[in-house]
Amino acid sequence: MDTSLHYLTMANQMLIQKRLLERVKASGLTLGQPKVLDYLKDHDGASQKEIAAGCLIEAGSLTSILNRMEEKNLIERRMLNGNRRTFHIFMTESGKKSQKLVEEVFREIETTAWKDISPEEAEAFMAVYHKIYKNLSETGCEHTGKEGSNK
Predict the structure, then answer these.
(1) Which residues of 107-122 are buried (b: 16+ CB within 10 A; e: fewer)?
(2) Most buried residue among 11, 13, 58, 102 by CB atoms closer than 10 A?
């Protein structure tokens, strides 16, 4: 097994996504929808632009995800204050039930992931992982000239 950061990060993401989709399959949720429901839990009524930024999803991809969610009656789009250019996304009662399922599954996945890891190890890991995220989000995808740098 490759032990590079990029490989393990992608492998863990794939495993999390696979477990999540297996557990929510019966509810009819598909790729991208759990992430949106998880975001709306704390940002119900957010604009599509806010959701795209918060979920790190391209606007075009989010539009198709939201269309399918609206068809399944998980969300509804509403205009606020007469602004016809910006729709705000709200969870329906059905969406709130699906969000609770997603929350439960994420909790189960995290419990499994942190098994046999002490709170101190988890805290140290998360601190480093946040630094990695910060480093990558600040530099974007451009080349930094720091080949093999391992700060």
Answers:
(1) eebeeeeeeeeeeeee
(2) 102
